[in-house]
Structures are given as C-alpha cells and as structure tokens.
Amino acid sequence: MNSDKNTAVITVLGNDRVGIIAAISNLLAEYNININDISQTILAEIFTMVMIVDLQEVVIEKSDISDKLRELGNKLGVQITIQHTGLFNAMHRI
Amino acid sequence: MINEYEIIETMNMFSRQHLDIRTITMGISLYDCCDSDANEACRKIYDKICRCAGRLVEVGEEISKKYNVPIIHKRISVTPISMIAAASGSTDYVMFAKTLDRAAKACGVNFVGGFSALVQKGYTKSDEILIHSIPQALAETDFVCSSINLASTRSGINMDAVRDMGHIIKQTAEASADRDAIGCAKLVVFANAPEDNPFMAGAFLGPGEPECVINVGISGPGVVKHALEGVKGKDLGVVAETIKKAAFKITRVGELVAREASERLNVPFGIIDLSLAPTPAVGDSVARLLEEFGLETCGTWGTTAALAMLNDAVKKGGTMASSFVGGLSGAFIPVSEDEGMIAAARSGSLLLEKLEAMTCVCSVGLDMIAIPGDTAPETISGIIADEMALGTFNNKTTAVRLIPVPGKGVGDSVEFGGLLGTAPIMPVNRQSCADFINRGGRIPAPIHSMRN
Predict the structure, then answer these.
(1) Min Cα–Cα distance to chain A from B12, Å
(2) Between the N and C ends of chain A, which has fewer C-beta atoms within 10 Å?
(3) Shortest CA distance to B326 belongs to which of B379, B381, B251?
(4) CA-based nearest residue to B285, from B214, B241, B232, B336
(5) What was the pLDDT predicted at A3?
(6) What is residue A4's predicted lDDT score, i.e. its pLDDT?
(7) Distance CA B401, CA B368 (A)
(8) Which residues contact B446 (CB under 8 A, 6 or more apart)?
(9) Model confidence over B52-103: pLDDT tens digits?
(10) Is B247 helix (H, G, I), strand (E, B) or coil?
(11) pLDDT tens, position by position, B160-181
C-alpha cells in the first residue's frame, strides 16, 4: 500500500452486534467515502473489523469524520477509530 | 497490504500502552531580536515567536487527528536569552522571561525553553545577569523554563558556576515556596547540553542551529514494557532485540509526525528525540519497565545494568528508524514523574546514590528529585559537581533538576500535579562538602577531550 494514496484504516473493536457495518457504511456514504476493503475477525477474543477506505476528497484532519465515527461507536458500544494509512506504513514497513 | 495483526498492535500501542508524541518543539532563533533598547528587544522577541509559532498548535492538532496519534505538548525553544539580552544593557532579565511567557501564552503552547546560558568555561556579564534573574523570573512566569550548561567534555567544569547554582536553586525554591518550590521544576543544569533537545525543562536552540526548526520528542515506556512481557524468562539477547524492534516502531511514528509538521509549517525538520519519558500514569513508567527485566524493585542490584542495556537498545532501534536522531535520546529517570520510581523511592529501595549510578548509563541525570528544604546550598552544588563530572569525564549529557522544598523533610512529599507528578522527599548525605565547593575555579577538561 502506498502511503501517498489518500486512504485510511477504520478499526472497530468490541462486541459484535447487528447493524455495525450498516451504520458505518451509511455514515461513510454521507461523506462520499468509498470502502475499498473490509474484513472481520476475532483477535484475542475481541471482535475486530478493519476497513480500508478511500478518502478521495475528504481530508481527515479538517473534517469531522473522526468525531462522527467516535460518536457512532459510543452509540453502538464499540470503539471506532479512523487513521490515515501512512501511520501503519511508517511503523511496519522499512 | 497492512495486516490485521499490525493494525491491532498499533491500536493497542496508543490506547493501552500510552504511546504518544510527547512534544513537537519549534526552535526559533532570536539573534535578529538583539537591540540596545531592552523594550525594543522584547517587542521583537514577542513578535518573532508569534510569527513563527502562531500555527504550531493548530498544525499539531491536525496531525494528531489525521493519524489518531496523541500529541501531548506543543512547545517552543529559543536561543539562550543571555546571548540575546546582552546588547540591551539591562541589569535584570526578568522582563525577557515575562516576554517569553506572554508569547508562549499567545501561541497556546505550554512551555517555552531558553531562559538559558552556556557557561561551561566562564561567565559573560550577560550570563551572570541571567543567572541572578532566574529565581524571580521563574516565580513570576508560568511557562518559562531555564537551563544552564555548567560543563562540557571539551571545556571541563565551571566550578564557580556550580557553586553559584547551588544558591540560585535554593533562592528559586524560596521564591516559589508557596507552590512547593515549583520554580525548581523549571530549572535544570547540564553537562554537555544538547542544542536540539525538544524536552523541557532543558530545551533551548543552540548557537549552531538554523533560523527555525522542528524537533520532535517521542515517548513510550509502556510499549517497550508490553513487548518485554512477551519474552518473559528469555535470555538478554532476546530482550535487547525486542526493545530495538519496539523502539524502531515508536521512532517511525515520530519521524512521520515530524516530517508532516515540518512540511505544513514550512520549517525544516531537525531531529527526533527518542526518549522513554515516563508520566505518572500507571503503565507509563520506566521503573516498571526496568522491573520487567526481573528486578523486584527499581533501585536494587542489577538496575544499572538493565538500564544500560535498555538505553542502548532504544538508541539502536531508533537510529535505524530515522537518520536524524538527536536531543537526549535514551531513557529518562525522573523520580516525581514516574509512578514506579515514586514507589521505589518511598519503599527505600531507590536512593539518590543509586540514581547517580543510573545516570552514568541513561540519557539524562538526577531529575525531578525533591530533597529536604534545609539542604545546604553547598551540598546542592556538591551533588551538581558529581553529576557534571559524570557527564564531562564520560563524554555524555548529564543534568540535575533538584527541588529543595522549603519546610519539608524526609517522609514528606510534594504534589506538583499533571505530568510533573508527586515527589517523596529523598534523604541526602549531610556530610559537608562546602570547603571543596567554595574553592571555585575550573576543573580542567579530561585528557580525552584532546581529540584533534
């Protein structure tokens, strides 16, 4: 994955329940954010969902998308974070 | 493709292991603010700081949001004020400190470092004025930090200044006695002070530094401790390797943030300071990390060896991750700011003498240590002299930040609050060293300073 690409990782941690993906997808659609990839798994007994999203025109640091996702997480009882993929590339790739 | 394991590991580092960018520090040269009129010099200083650092906090917050990485502090370091105020002819530099304080508040940063002088070989008139302004300057400002370089491997130790700083530290404590001597928490003396250090209280922008520069300090003792929990009982080679890998990842976050801040502010990137800087929060302690090596309590036998290895492995991992690692880089061992150190000091396992030994192999020195308020100024100078000798003769940075708390003695403790934490008053050897300190003069540079 190229860090120059304007993509981000959305992580959802917590207990699985109906409607998580639907709620997040709806919110992302409002901001015109496309989902490139999605996967879910149980890691260390925690439900984990990872989405790679294309930010296109959205600039995370200037929009309220990260706050909106956090609020949605509180409502759903899960932790949702969005982070630019540059972070993961910096930390895990030489 | 980034895998899920890496994503979760990263998330945990920030959410559970307290990984953070401790500070983005903008260094600002004040050479062009010298003026024969002190008021005019202060006006220029204020304007320049506000011009350069006006967007620092905003940019820090934007980057923090983009990567969801906590950036705790945004700070400013400036050219040592003794160099800038010299031309003004003032006999008191408190107004310069107040100017720095106002500028820091206007920019929204929480500390400004550089009320400083470099006196390793002797005083200029201006250095003397600055040093005597310290007690009042630190009592009457909130965000100004002061540092004095007393010694270097090249120049030896200025023992006149060591003697004077014993008195200045006492006066600084008295001047802020109503707040448990908090002035002393903003005052540090150095041997071999780094000129690009982003961490307070010792940050200043050295004479060889550029016009304006971004230095980033990163922390994460909790991340290293967590990594070590995964290799319990394994031999020390495995431990070293584990620390290096964790340090590498931590440093890369710093590098990413520093590059991005530099680009957005259009200011060159200076260095990453990879320091394991503890906070009083549980899980963010260097002492607990040392205990993870297999020590019952920090301060017991083996502590120095563990710290030496930790410090070295951190640097090795860090230098692989960034070509510009500088500042203090290594492990900090402040007492009041580290939950495990506080506990070890309270239990009697960690004594001043052991801390001194530990400073031989870590990145800084005797840091944030509260001592009895009735400690003689010459004794404080003696502690400083020993620490300066360790730095000067071992070719490393050492520092002293002691807090002689007026009216308090061993068994008491002081609450500074926030990141400055809580300090139990530690016992000090009371045998006099006054005749040694009052000799004054200079301790010559060690033979290994002759490298040419």
Answers:
(1) 11
(2) C
(3) B251
(4) B336
(5) 46
(6) 54
(7) 5
(8) B153, B156, B392, B393
(9) 999 999 999 999 999 999 999 999 999 999 999 999 999 999 999 999 999 9
(10) helix
(11) 999 999 999 999 999 999 999 9
- Say if residues B82 and B117 touch (Cβ distance below 8 Å): yes
Contact A88 B2 (CB under 8 A): yes
Three-state secondary-structure class, residue B350: coil
CA dist B405 and B411 (Å) reads 12
**Whole-complex ipTM:** 0.88
What domains does chain A contain, in order, with CATH numbers? 7-92 (3.30.70.260)
CB within 8 Å: B252 and A82: no
DSSP line for A20-83: HHHHHHHHHHHTTPEEEEEEEEEETTEEEEEEEEE-TT--GGGSSHHHHHHHHHHHHTEEEEEE
CA B102 to CA B433: how far, in whole Å?
40
Distance separating alpha carbons of residues B45 and B315, to the nearest angstrom: 35
pLDDT at A56: 82
B306 touches B255 (CB < 8 A) = no
Interface of A with B in 29-68 (CB under 8 A): 39, 41, 43-44, 48, 50, 52, 60-62, 66
Are A92 and B11 a contacting pair at CB < 8 A? no
The pLDDT value recorded for residue A2 is 42
Range with the largest mean pLDDT of A3-7, A54-58, B171-175 = B171-175
Residue entry with tokens 């820091």: B104
Element (H, E) at B371: strand B366-372
Mean confidence (pLDDT) of chain B:
95
CA distances to A84, B65, B169 from B405, in Å? 47, 40, 10
**What does the pLDDT look like over B360-379, one tens digit per residue?**
999 889 999 999 999 999 99
Whole-angstrom distance, CA of residue A72 vs CA of residue A80 = 8
Nearest Cα residue to B426 out of B358, B369, B364: B369
- Which residues partner with A8 through β-bridges? A53, A84
The span from the CA of B169 to the CA of B186, in Å, is 11
CA dist B27 and B78 (Å) reads 6
